[in-house]
Write a structure and sequence with these properties.
Residues 23-268 form the Nucleoside phosphorylase domain. The chain is of the alpha/beta class. The chain contains 7 helices and 9 strands, in the order αββββαββαβαβαβαα. The chain has a 5-stranded mixed β-barrel, surrounded by 4 helices. Strand 3 and strand 4 form a beta hairpin. Helix 1 (2-13) crosses helix 2, helix 2 packs across helix 5 and helix 3 crosses helix 7. The longest helix has 14 residues, at 89-102. The chain binds 1-O-phosphono-alpha-D-ribofuranose (R1P). 1-O-phosphono-alpha-D-ribofuranose (R1P) is lined by residues 28-29, 57, 80, 82, 111-112, 188, 209-211, 246, 249. 1-O-phosphono-alpha-D-ribofuranose (R1P) binds at residues 28-29, 57, 80, 82, 111-112, 188, 209-211, 246, 249.
């Protein structure tokens, strides 16, 4: 894998004009608008980057945006890869490896998620304080490449405590409600049944989605500090008597775009 990482890094390096990014952003469904805030952007479509998969999901543009946000050099994924798209766990998380090779030390992962915690409201933002991997797979399965990280990585602090404090303070300065909770990663592409949501609540989940967990596992393996933010785009199945749809997910993320942009920008400024 190291050869492929270096090949992708070398390609991206050619476009960087000396701007080495230290902060990475992975933008979830409908949340890619944040990348439009990046100044002096260098845009690289995934399809041009050697070894990169391509985005197939609505609301995921499929390009890297590199530039400055709040005076910091950042690299944003405007669109991510999901396991349910048919990619392997290693493909889904490959960009995190490349970000690390490019110099990224801190990563902000974002997603649209269904609210399991009944005290949440659609449109709330949630700080991810931990996760539960329900995907039945793990991106680190297979031979371990010691140069990339340890065979048995610690996951007790997968979400960086200092960054969580920064995010909480920023939300309070902005007068924004920031819920906190545990994100459950399922494979999708089906949304959960009411019974599954009940089970996930019993297990300690507060929000559920189909991404993020593999990326955070690889970031931990790579020694990258992670901050996770979910946008609660709808209540998960069984809470309200209405079917779920991806259109609704995108609609809600559009409604909270201002809060989301303000919060993430402020946090980046303090990173
Ligand atoms: C379902 O509506 C899609 O939205 C979420 C789910 O994981 C799924 O892909 O997308 P992100 O997690 O990429 O934000």
């Amino acid at each position: 894998m190291i050869e492929q990482i270096n090949e992708s890094k070398a390609f991206i390096d050619q476009h960087l004009e000396g701007k080495q990014p230290h902060i990475g952003l992975i933008l979830g469904s409908g949340l890619g608008i944040l990348a439009d805030e990046i100044e002096n952007p260098i845009i690289i479509p995934y399809k041009e980057i050697p070894n990169f998969p391509t985005s197939t999901v609505a609301g995921h543009k499929g390009q890297l945006v590199i530039g400055e946000l709040q005076g910091k050099n950042v690299i944003a994924m405007q669109g991510r890869f999901h396991y349910y798209e048919g990619y392997s766990m290693q493909q889904v998380t490959f960009p995190v490896r490349v970000m690390k090779a490019l110099g990224v030390e801190k990563l902000v992962v974002t997603n649209a998620a269904g609210g399991i915690n009944e005290s949440f409201d659609p449109g709330n933002l949630m700080l991810i304080k931990d996760h539960i991997n329900m995907m039945g797979d793990n991106p680190l399965i297979g031979p371990n490449e010691d140069e990339l990280g340890a065979r048995f990585p610690d996951m007790s602090q997968a979400y960086d405590r200092e960054l969580m404090e920064v995010a909480k303070n920023c939300a309070s300065d902005l007068n924004l409600t920031l819920q906190e909770g545990v994100y459950v990663g399922n494979t999708g592409p089906v949304y959960e049944t009411g019974a599954e949501v009940k089970m996930l609540r019993t297990l300690g989940g507060d929000a559920v989605g189909m991404s993020t967990v593999p990326e955070v596992i690889v970031a931990s393996h790579a020694g990258i500090d992670v901050l996770g933010i979910s946008c609660i785009s709808n209540m998960a199945a069984g809470i309200l008597d209405q079917p779920l749809s991806h259109d609704e997910v995108i609609e809600t993320t559009e409604k909270v775009r201002e809060d989301f942009i303000q919060l993430v920008k402020k946090v980046i400024g303090k990173m």
